[in-house]
Amino acid sequence: MIKKILIANRGEIACRIIKTAKKMGIATVAVYSDADREAMHVKMADEAVHIGPAPSNQSYIVIDKILDAIRKTGADAVHPGYGFLSENPLFAKALEKEGVTFIGPPVGAIEAMGDKITSKKLAAEAGVSTVPGHMGLIEDADEAVKIASSIGYPVMIKASAGGGGKGMRIAWNDAEAREGFQSSKNEAKSSFGDDRIFIEKFVTQPRHIEIQVLGDKHGNTLYLGERECSIQRRNQKVIEEAPSPFLDEATRKAMGEQAVALSKAVGYHSAGTVEFIVDGDRNFYFLEMNTRLQVEHPVTELITGIDLVEQMIRVASGEELSFGQDDIRLNGWAIESRLYAEDPYRNFLPSIGRLTRYRPPEEGTAADGTTVRNDTGVYEGAEISMYYDPMIAKLCTHGLNRAEAIDAMADALDRFEVEGIGHNLPFLSAVMGQDRFRKGALTTAYIAEEFPDGFSGVKPDASETRFLAAIATHVHLTLQERAVQISGTIGNHRRVPGKDWVVRFNGEGIAVLSAATEKGRLVEFEDGQSLTIVSDWTPGRTTALFSAGGEAAHVKVETVGTGIRLRWRGIDLTAHVRSPRIAELARLIPEKPPRDTSKMLLCPMPGVLTALSVAEGQTVEAGQPLATVEAMKMENVLRAEKRGVVKRLAAAAGASLAVDELILEFE
Questions:
Q1: How many other β-carbons are positioned within 10 Å of the β-carbon of residue 588?
Q2: Whole-angstrom distance, CA of residue 506 vs CA of residue 575
Q3: Residue 591 class from Cβ within 10 Å (0-12 exposed, 13-18 middle, 19+ buried)?
Q4: What CATH code is carried by the domain that includes residue 66?
Q5: What element of type H or E holds 210?
Q6: Are 604 and 648 within one domain?
Q7: What is the percent of the chain with per-residue pLDDT over 90, rounded to a whole number?
Q8: pLDDT tier at 491 (50, 70, 90 boundaries)?
Q9: pLDDT surpasses 90 at 617
Q10: Closest Cα to residue 204, out of 124, 120, 282, 278?
């Protein structure tokens, strides 16, 4: 058995691997860059080795630096996690030459499946259904346009060595094919050091469903069911679940058997994932094979009870799988929500900064049988860097069925507190409450279709508005009562909070009458309906359980000036609870107009300005590229919203920019 594992990775996946290694009694070594000196994976490991500057191409993906760390610590095995060097055959060969065990598949399988062009040819030879496309390398944008036109739009332009949504673009016409080719090529070179590009037909209304495979070195290969990964943004997964709400048993079996056939064709062992695109008629097409542990592996672990990291370690040690295909049972349902440092209110643009508050929900199995699991690599006070993937955590829930898993996820997201940076938690909460999601009507276009104008939060319905108004009243009066207790009695008089109040949300006023009862705080509305709020909230608490009429919910509470900010299920409202007279006067106060930025191009995210495509005095047309900003390994092209003339360039290519920093001005 392996004695000491060096984890050639960082963040939550490094922490995840360390947990299993410790459970197995195996020592662990972390590696870290300048940006990760105080990272969680460094603190968790038995040993840690510094490997260089923050950029990954100067640290985490420099093979010689990883080898030096191995020699210093005497590690006899390496787990690569995902990303970085996990699918680099040169790394696997270097470890083999060094006499160090690679906890992953054989080099031949990495080479065959890591190259998407070669993998599709091998898949077709193995009898796996494949998507129509051009499997040869494409030299330039002109050739890309010609090939795309011959295949027929829409097409997917993809990096041969790509993954994680990087180096991928969808093109619907010649102009998009030309631009997408260059952007994909640039991203691929930056992220993987390999700028080879290919093109395939883009299947409309597709579902992204993948099969988890596992094999040992003794010829045993099996599949562990599927994962639905259709909800994506910028071709990167956001919400995953296992099993898929779309597959029937026959399709699951056919996909699983083809995945195993492909694995055996390349002599695969260890954990791997075969990804498919599935259309509305359950026709499925091979997309790619990831020869590594997948980000969303926890949902498979939750429904099978199999620790995939442990199995990878045992397989690498030469052990035979202790179970066969007939032993695999899919129990219940699991969902994973990826918590990203991305602001959904700004089109999911990256956010960086310090986590001033980070309080995940408690992990474990509840009395109702649902389970919460949170794979993370950060802690309160940690810094989210611009150099790496923006993932903060992977929140998972498991229930007896899909409805239970969704309800558990919605509640867990309500209890998850993250402050200090922009993040997608409100968006994740919003999806859990959507009828379409609950019905399982998913496609990879889900976000674009459900949020065509971008995400702007959830608007509460009438019932939710009343519930939140009652909570705001309860919080306000609790604060008032505390103030009375602090001020005490003045002379013979003791101030008593009033009973009549007006709760205002975004200009809408709701008149309420409040009274304390033995059962809780009664809040009565103008039409005679009422809610009795029972809560454990006290001043200073940032989240609490509020119940009314048999329904209970965890709501985040924050006092903002004279207002009370409430966040729940993707709803984000600030309430002002005032006496009727003060509420009447408050309506007369004019609102401050927002700053006019219509003639400015502001940087939408923290990042590096890699290119300026215009000059001062130049006339630009609507949709024309103005600048390119690279952030968290993604290239973002900023375009003109309308026709105009560039008045002034305020930044130069190569500059590091903050959010809303000026790039250029128009006349």
A1: 6
A2: 8
A3: exposed
A4: 3.40.50.20
A5: strand 207-215
A6: yes
A7: 77
A8: low
A9: yes
A10: 278
Last residue of a domain, one of 183, 201, 219: 201
Same domain, 139 and 161: yes
Q: Is the peptide bond before 154 cis (omega within 30 degrees of 0)?
A: yes
- Classified as helix, coil or strand, 182 is helix
CB distance 181 to 143 below 8 Å? no
Report yes or no on 591 lying in a domain.
Answer: no
Phi/psi of residue 627, each to 5°?
A: -155, 160
**Domain interval for residue 657:** 600-666
Is residue 652 included in any domain, yes or no? yes
- Shared-domain flag, residues 25 and 76: yes
Q: How many CB atoms lie within 10 A of CB 585?
A: 11
| DSSP secondary structure letter of residue 37 | T
Query: Residues 98-116: pLDDT tens digits?
Result: 999 999 999 999 999 988 7
DSSP-assigned letters across all residues of 372-436: EEEEES--TTPEEPTTS--EEEEEEEEESSHHHHHHHHHHHHHH-EEESS--SHHHHHHHHT-HH
At 639, which CATH number?
2.40.50.100
Return the bridge partners of 342, or none. 350
pTM score of the predicted model: 0.85
Annotated catalytic residue 288: yes
Do both 390 and 475 map to the same domain?
no
pLDDT of residue 494: 61
Q: Which of 288, 301, 336, 342 is catalytic?
A: 288
Q: How many CB atoms lie within 10 A of CB 319?
A: 14
Residue 470, H or E segment:
helix 462-487
**Whether residues 604 and 578 fall in one domain:** no
Q: Which of 523, 554, 586 is the last residue of a domain?
A: 586
In a domain, residue 480? The reply is yes
- Residue 441: name the closest of 211, 205, 242 by CA: 205
| 111-120, 217-226, 383-392: segment of lowest average pLDDT | 111-120
Residue 484 included in any domain: yes
